[in-house]
C-alpha cells in the first residue's frame, strides 16, 4: 500500500535484484515480508538478516545516520539495537539507498507478550536514560542529519497542529459514531497548556525519536530491543516521552517514576503526544488505517488520563 505521494513500489523481485547486484551470496536465501512502517518496507532474509527499503527519497535520508551512529551507540545502551551489515547503493531499478541489518528476535509489546507492564515501563526508562546520557561523541544538533523537529520546542509546531486539529474536527462532524469519541476541544486545551509553559532548559542529548510500540521488541516477557532509529537526533527530551501514552497506565506510571519526570516536562510530553497523534490521524486516516487507529488510541489514552483524575 502506498502511503506517500512519491513512494516507489517495492516487492520481492525488486529486493532480490538489489541483493543479486551487490550481495549475490545472499540472493538465494529465503525472502519474506517482515512488516512495513511509514518510512520503510522490510523483508526477512534467511534466518539472520533483515532488508530495509525506504518508501521514498525523504525516508531514505535517515539511513546514513543509522549506519554512522548505531555501531557507536550500541555498546553504550542497555538493550539491543539494530546492527547494520550492508549499505545498499541506488540502482537503475531502485534509485535510493537501502540497507541490511542483523535480524533481531522478538515480538511487539502487548497483553500476550508482556508479563509485567510496570517492569516494562521501568526497562524502557532505563534504555531512554542510557541513550539520553550517552556520550555525544562530537555530534550536535547543528549536524544536518541530527536536527529533527521532535528534539526542539513545541512553538514551531503550532501551525500544523492547529491545522490538523481542524481537519480532525471536520472529519468528526461527518464520521460514524465509532469515530466521534475524541474531544478535540479538550485536546486543543491541553496542547495550548503545553505551549504556554517555558521551553525545556536542560542539556540536549541523543534521542530515538519514535519509541512507539512498533519499534520495541519483547522477548521472554521483557523489553529486549529497540529498533528503527530513523528519527535519531540530538535535542531536548520532551518529545521522547510522548509514546508512553501508547502503553498501559502501569507502564506509563513506572516510566515516569523511573525517570523522575517533573510536571512541566510531563505536560510538554503530553503536548507532543497530542501533536503527533492528531497529525497521524489526519494524514493516515485513509492511506494507513492501522496507524491512524494507533494515533486514535493514543489520544484516547490522554483523555482517559485526564478523565480519571491522573496526577498532573
Short structural summary:
InterPro entries: AGP_Transferase, Aminoglycoside_PTrfase, Kinase-like_dom_sf. This is Aminoglycoside phosphotransferase family protein. The chain is α+β, with helices and mostly antiparallel strands and 312 residues long.
Search tags:
single chain, 312 residues, alpha+beta, Phosphorylase Kinase, domain 1, Aminoglycoside 3'-phosphotransferase, Chain: A, domain 2, 2 domains, 5-stranded antiparallel sheet, two-stranded antiparallel ribbon, 9 helices, 9 strands, 14% strand, Kinase-like_dom_sf, Aminoglycoside_PTrfase
Overview of this protein structure:
- With 312 residues, the protein is an alpha+beta fold.
- It has 2 domains: 12-102, Phosphorylase Kinase, domain 1 (2-Layer Sandwich), CATH 3.30.200.20; 117-307, Aminoglycoside phosphotransferase (APH), C-terminal lobe (Aminoglycoside 3'-phosphotransferase, Chain: A, domain 2).
- The protein is built from 9 helices and 9 strands.
- A 5-stranded antiparallel β-sheet has the order 1-2-3-5-4, with helices on both faces. A two-stranded antiparallel sheet has the order 6-9.
- Helix 4 (117-132) packs parallel to helix 7, helix 6 packs across helix 8 (263-284) and helix 8 runs antiparallel to helix 9 (289-307).
Amino acid at each position: 500500500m502506498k502511503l506517500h505521494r512519491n513512494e516507489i513500489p517495492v516487492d520481492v523481485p525488486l529486493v532480490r535484484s538489489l541483493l543479486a547486484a551487490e550481495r549475490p551470496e545472499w540472493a538465494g536465501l529465503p525472502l519474506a515480508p517482515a512488516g512495513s512502517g511509514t518510512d520503510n518496507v522490510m523483508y526477512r532474509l534467511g534466518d539472520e538478516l533483515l532488508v530495509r527499503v525506504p518508501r521514498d527519497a525523504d525516508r531514505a535520508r535517515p539511513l546514513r545516520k543509522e549506519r554512522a551512529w548505531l555501531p557507536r551507540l550500541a555498546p553504550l545502551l542497555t538493550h539491543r539495537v539494530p546492527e547494520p551489515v550492508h549499505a545498499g547503493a541506488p540502482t537503475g531499478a531502485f534509485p535510493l539507498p537501502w540497507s541490511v541489518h542483523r535480524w533481531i528476535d522478538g515480538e511487539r509489546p502487548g497483553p500476550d507478550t508482556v508479563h509485567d507492564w510496570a517492569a516494562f515501563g521501568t526497562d524502557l526508562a532505563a534504555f531512554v536514560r542510557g541513550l539520553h546520557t550517552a556520550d555525544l561523541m562530537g555530534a550536535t544538533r547543528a549536524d544536518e542529519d541530527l536536527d529533527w523537529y521532535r528534539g526542539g520546542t513545541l512553538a514551531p509546531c503550532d501551525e500544523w497542529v492547529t491545522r490538523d486539529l481542524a481537519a480532525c474536527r471536520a472529519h468528526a462532524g461527518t464520521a460514524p459514531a465509532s469515530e466521534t469519541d475524541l474531544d478535540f476541544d479538550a485536546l486543543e486545551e491541553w496542547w495550548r497548556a503545553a505551549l504556554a509553559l517555558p521551553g525545556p532548559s536542560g542539556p540536549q542529548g541523543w534521542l530515538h525519536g519514535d519509541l512507539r510500540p512498533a519499534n520495541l521488541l519483547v522477548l521472554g516477557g521483557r523489553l529486549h530491543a529497540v529498533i528503527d532509529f530513523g528519527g535519531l537526533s540530538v535535542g531536548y527530551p520532551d518529545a521522547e516521552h510522548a509514546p508512553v501514552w501508547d502503553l498501559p497506565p502501569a507502564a506509563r506510571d513506572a516510566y515516569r517514576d523511573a525517570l523522575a519526570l517533573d510536571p512541566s516536562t510531563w505536560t510538554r510530553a503530553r503536548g507532543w503526544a497530542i501533536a503527533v497523534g492528531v497529525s497521524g490521524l489526519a494524514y493516515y486516516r485513509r492511506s494507513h488505517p492501522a496507524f491512524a487507529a494507533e494515533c486514535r488510541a493514543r489520544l484516547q489514552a490522554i483523555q482517559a488520563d485526564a478523565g480519571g483524575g491522573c496526577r498532573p
